[in-house]
Structure formats: C-alpha cells, structure tokens
Amino acid sequence: MKYGAMWMEPYFGDSAQSWLAEYILPFKSDYDTSLDNGYDGIIFINFSLEGLRRIVSTLKLGKTGFSFIITNQGNIVSYPSSGVMGKNIHNLTGSHQLLSIISKHMDTNKLIKFKHPIHGRECWLTLERIAGTNAILGAVILADELRDYSFSQDKVEKLILFFLLVFLVTLFALIVRQNSLIHYWVQLSTVIAIFLFGYLIYLWYSELTQHIATEHDSIQVVDTEGLNTILRNRKLITQQKNRRSLKLNAFSNKDVRVGIYIQAMQFLDANNIEVTGKIWQQSDITQIKETPDFIIANAQTITWKKIHEYQGYSLWYFNATLRQPFSHTTFPFDTENVRIKFLPKLHQKSLRLIPDFTGYSELSPDTLPGVSHDLIVNGWQLTKSYFSYREPEPQVTLGRPEQLSILDEPQLQFNLQVQREITGPIITHIFPILVVSLLIFCILMLWSKCEQQVSLWGFSTSMVLEYCAALFFILVISHVSLREALQAKGMIYLEFFYFITYVMIIITATCAVLYTSVISIHFLDYQESFIPKLIYWPSFFGSCVLVTLIQFW
Predict the structure, then answer these.
(1) Angstrom distance (rounded) from CA 72 to CA 495
(2) pLDDT tens string 393-426
C-alpha cells in the first residue's frame, strides 16, 4: 500500500477464462477517529482485457501487419498466434525468431527496422509503454505494404546513372580536341554508342536480378502471425457484410491444413503447365476419403491416388494440368507465378483451408519450401515458392445462394515463382537482331558516289534494296515464330527491338533511293552520307534504351 494507487500485473483468470487487469486504490477512514495512522483498506477493481485485445487485433496495419500487448514482466496478453498467449516472451526467444527480435528491443522507444526472419523483407517495429500499467503496446508492419513505390529506389538509381552518363559524354565532348572535325565527331559518336549499349546492359541486369512477379490481388503468407492477421481481417469484412444483409455469420469454422510437395513440372505450351507431386491435408475430420476436401480450381485435368491415411491425416499423389494465362510482356526478362489454387468443395462450405506450416522445415520463399530439390524446368529457373491468399472471385452463387459464403472467402494458393533463363532468347532473338543491325550498318558504309569505290564495292540502289529485303524477310520469320511460341495477345518487350530494326531497314532503303536520285539533300550528300553513318548506332541503342526505360518503369 505504500506505493498508493496502481495497476497490478495482468493475470489469466481461470473462472473468467480471460486476461484480467487489477487496479488497486488504498483509502483512509476515520472509523478509529484518526486519519493520520495510515491506510485503513484497499479498493480494487478487476477489468477484463478481452475488449482491449479485440480492439488491438482490429488495428489496420497493412495486409499482414499486426499489433500486440506484452506486460512489463514479459507475459504475452495479445498476439496473432494463439499458441504463445499467456507465455513469457523471454522463454520463447529460442523457438520463435520474430518474438526473439521483439524481445531484444522491448526497451527501445524508436522505430526499429529489421529483416523478417523468414521471408527477409523489410519490417518496422514500434513499441510504446501504456501509461499506468507500464505494459507494452507494439506493432509489426511490413514496409512494402505502406511504402510508396511510384518512385522507388531502383528508379532513382537508374535516373542517377543515366544523368551520370550524360555528364560523362558532355565532359568528353568538351575536353577532347581533334585536328579533324570528322575524327572528333566519329569519336564522340562511338563514345555515345558505347555508353548507351552499356546502360542497356545495366537495365537488363537490373531487371534480371529483381526476381519480382507482381501479384496485386494476393497476399503472401509465411508464418502464423501473417496467416491469423489475414483470416482475422477477412472475418471482420464478412461479419460487416452479414450485418448489412441481416444474415447470420457464415464464416468457416473448421480448419483444414493443406500442404503440397511438387516433384515434377513442365510447360506444355505458353499457357499450360503439367504438375506432379504430393498433397496432404490434416483436420479433425477422421472419415475416410478417396479425394481431398478441396479441388484445384485452375486444373483442366487432374488424377488422384491415395497413398496414406491415418487419424485425420491424408496423403495423395496427384498429376494435374494447369491452365494459366501468362502475359509475357517483358519477354525475355519475364518472371511468372505458377499458381495452384485450392478451393473447398461446394458441399464442404464449413471448411477453411490454411497452409500446414508444420509440414515444412523451412518457410523462407528463397529456400523453395514444398518443391523438390531435383526439380528442373526447361527454360526456366526456380526462384521462390510460398503460400498466399487471393482475393475472392466476383460473387457467383452458381444457382445456389447458400454457397455465396464459401465463394466470398479468400482463396488459398501455392505459388511457384519462375524466371526465364536468358541464354536461349539471347541466342535465338537478340543476337540475330544485333547481327542484322550490323549488316545494315555495313550496307550504309558502302554508300559512295565516287566511281572508283562504286566499281570496287558494287554500290547501287538495287543492291541496297535487295539486301534490305533479305534482312527484313529474316527478321519477319523470327518475329512470327516468337509470337507463335508465346501465343502473345499484346505487345512483347522484345518486339520493340524488331520494330526498331524494321525502321532502320526502311530508313536505309529510303535514304539509298534519295541518295542516288537527282534530288540534292545536304543531310545525305555531306561527305558521302557521313551524317547517317555517324548517328546510326547512337540512334539504334538510344531507341533501345528508351523502350526499355518505358517498359520497365
């Protein structure tokens, strides 16, 4: 009582079956005709923390961010993972990596930036003492979910390097001096072309090393904290919809843990993939099943073969042909997500599918959980694998309004991120484009009105047109085969290089006709077409850089 009014350490009440916080207030009385002989008693009030926990759990902190409450002694009062509730955080640091990071910074009052121990993405941790109780209110936020990527660091680096190249070229133009003006411009043109080609290689390398396949309508989940946050947010949305429509809460109440192990995969064509492996489910439902309680929603054909079943655990071998449209817009630098979509069967509307994290020794996407280490996909490199939840499809009742609840819940899917191997496209597409461009330049170098050189090189308008037509025919065949192989619907990044080369061929043929005509054009006649030869490579690589910046911006 000597400390006066105060909050006591929260404790779990067995009778109330909830966490309680006790507030005590000593008081004095004159029942003994004296108020100066110390306190005469204590008034105490117990408050249930359940309401506070609900408020904390509903804080909007991005798609997977969450908040928590830890007492001054380290007891966890509120946390997304129910398995750690009531335990002391200092006793969990060895078995729980994220709690270990939180424990190290419990006395820090500033924003902490750290790498998530599983997926390695940047996270923010903020902690604040609650006045009176000295408990800690904290929040963990995924930085990517709040950060504005309209002008990311990668774009800043590209712009800085571009302006650096412009500065170096300008510096070269001011410093270098030549007795011959022609030699000066030739050197300047060569430097510009080399710098632009080097910058193009840098842009390609930057795109190759990013390993990002954009998924705007799905949320990656790699731990129980993120899983519980996603399901909690969806439950709140469902409850709000039900209240507005005066329906009872139709949210799933039976969890089925799902796991997958992919052993073989191959691309049958541009939009069809054959996948072979094992799938298991664990639930409290112990009835015997020949097939799982869910379907693979994007499978055109699928075969199941039961391997094992024991007390709610079932294991199947499966072979499925997945139909999934790929955009290929950034070919040959495209990174795609092969998605395996799980959906409860319509008669199993009370089931909720969740990832079975206990079935994997590693959950970091970079370690490829759920994928055989012997898996090889021709023409593609495996980069990441992970579970995610996809926003529900547009609401369709399929003629049965009571099925709307199952179709309105987030859909579990397993993602295998693959990146195209660049070696094949370089040999079959990029290298031929560069060779054709070089041949066009060689044709341009043959231009001359000097009779001696014309007789030696055989330059004529018909010769230029014949070579241009032959080169154009070669490119068209390669271009058509590219679109047929990818079954492309829109424009592909590499196609712009074909179009740039087409333009170079057309300009070369047109200028050749004008050059040999009676029309006098200073741009073409000066020093035997010196200017077109001078600007050829800077124009070609400059166009390639411009297209690349626009496409990958």
Answers:
(1) 62
(2) 655 555 555 555 555 678 899 999 999 999 999 9
Identity of the amino acid at 244: R
Give CA–CA dist 545/434, Å, rounded: 14
- DSSP state letter for 463: H
pTM exceeds 0.85 for this model: no
Q: Can you point out the beta strands (E) in 311-366?
A: 313-323, 335-344, 351-355
Of 281, 235, 414, 277, the C-alpha closest to 342 is 414
Q: Determine the Cα angle at 117 with ends 125 and 357, to 5°.
A: 115
Give residue-wise pLDDT tens across range 158-190: 888 888 988 988 888 888 776 788 888 899 999
Pairwise CA distance, residues 488 & 329, whole Å: 8
Q: How far apart are CA 515 and CA 444, in angstroms?
A: 11
Of 542, 488, 553, 439, the residue nearest 332 (C-alpha) = 488
Nearest Cα neighbor of 508 from 525, 530, 533, 527 is 533
What are the strands of the beta sheet with 76-78, ordered from one edge? 76-78, 66-70, 136-142, 122-129, 112-115
Structure tokens given for 204: 């390609």
Distance of CA 32 to the CA centre of its chain: 74
- Return the structure tokens found at 6: 């105060």
Q: Give CA–CA dist 270/31, Å, rounded.
A: 91
Contact 132, 102 (CB under 8 A): no
